[in-house]
């Protein structure tokens, strides 16, 4: 829709800062004013009446992986698998639909949901498919399992050394079991090509699907053809190819290994069009709680011989400095308390050297030492959190971290009270990108340490004001800001968490244009 100023009128306008009226005036893709219809309506202004609905800032997902998400939607998801027999039948069916020699690669296996409560190994996968390479990813993205054919293709055998920042599980004789952790996944993923299973149309459709959930901007984590999902190809190139068809704003955080590759990726993204741009560097300090690879000070409560994997090294400092020099942001993944402390040490050094703390993000900030909550606030570093993790982890997280650490695991309220800048995301396809589910979990936490739940307005802020700041965007609905608006059937601040989960998205507007196919 275009053609001059337009007034959107509804039951009320709801922001994390209050309810400033019942109407939003937009023109030329920008917010002109927010207030009451009685003061904003004037001759020559078209009125878009949304009686009974609520106008909110567009939802932002500050951290997600759009290419793997699109791939999971296109049929490579193992979500919902309940036992190993069901997994093997899914592999058989999926393999039968592929051309000879084409690998079977799938995402989102949850071993905690399997009846056997264990990861499969290569012998399990061989029983379903022994001829073609098979690689299945745990839903966290930090653990994968390869069949014998995939291991052989990658040249992995008993003599293969663990790569830096990763490990290969082995049996009592030292023979690889097929389970690959962290950077060891790349040994297989980089020699497989499953990119043909994801079309450009499917990627575009997935982005329209995000708009249908009310999402108007994302922080897109993009690989360059390596990493755990390397089989999907160069994700930067894939996004650049569809840039003129992207319906929402995509800010790219690039997983690079050298400053030169970061510079090249930034150039390509920034030249792609109005909806796609480079925003920063994405690095890794550790792994995941689910895979027992998060870097912890003390061992996991359910695995007393394991403290996880620290991946932060000198290269991260060089890449962080390069990103800052380019005018970008730095976003480093840290789950465990040891990893979070190490990233804060790095950021403290960068800030002492002149870095703006608003350009420094810690992705996930899951388990924190109590003193590091204060350090986050003191430094002004942003905690990029994913409340949706609790929806998958609630039944095992206490056993994993133990009673002493659960009080500072996903400590949303403590961070908010301390004044830590926070933004919300999903880490999709690790979790659903649905922001309403994420918002609800930020409040009720699936029953885990509910005292650390956020107040309703602060939960809304995670996915609006906080996420906008973490994506380098202006304050949502402020005069002159992009007219990114979502129309919903209820006020999420006045609703219970369960009612928030049932939110119906009526319309989504991006830069003043209604996304016509945005149907949830």
Structure in words:
- By secondary structure, the chain is an alpha/beta fold.
- The protein has 3 domains: 1-57 and 479-520, Urease, subunit C, domain 1, CATH 2.30.40.10; 76-195, Diaminopimelate Epimerase, Chain A, domain 1 (Roll), CATH 3.10.310; 285-471, Metal-dependent hydrolases (TIM Barrel, Alpha-Beta Barrel), CATH 3.20.20.
- It contains 20 helices and 20 strands.
- The strands form 3 sheets. It has an 8-stranded parallel β-sheet with strand order 5-11-12-13-14-15-16-17.
- Strand 19 (505-510) and strand 20 (513-514) form a beta hairpin.
- The chain is globular, with a radius of gyration of 23 Å.
- The two termini are 20 Å apart.
- The relative contact order is 0.14.
- The mean pLDDT is 96.
